[in-house]
Amino acid sequence: MASFARTGLEVGFWQYVLRDLAEYKIYTPDYIHSLLVNGFDPHDLDDLFDSIGKMGRLVILLLDEFDFVVDQSDPQIPSFLYSLRALSSRPSRGLAMVVASREPLDELCQGIRFAGSPFYNIFTFVHLGKFSREEAEELIDKYLAGTGITFDQEDREFLWQVSEKGHPYLLQVACFNLFEGKLSGEVP
Q1: pTM over 0.85
Q2: Is residue 40 in a domain?
């Protein structure tokens, strides 16, 4: 992995990931704890994910709202994107990523200058469309289960319409706001 100055975003991100790896005992918690206490460099991360891969395990990072990461990257030296690409491209395959963004990664990364291959060409692009009515209902039911909050048919029709008939993000936001309104008693 190329050696670049790490940003606060990058260090914080890896600290978060390392704490989860230790908590879920994906790898030796004492080793991960020593990285957190003593600090780590890109080679430590290489070694860690190589070891995890050699154990027959795979860490899959689910990175939602990746637009934020790209926006925070230095367009001239995108070190964090380089490190993510290098780690997920290693032969041991101890790390894989699923990245979600509002724009396709190739468009999102247009203004970033990459030395060598661009970050986004390691991904398979899958455009997620709108939910069907049945999928939207299933999502609503799943998240309301056990909360004591219900959405009647009028609520559900409202959610369907304001979500532009199943847009995942809009449906999530509308459901959250309706849920909070019912929880607080502001919405009957």
Answers
A1: no
A2: yes
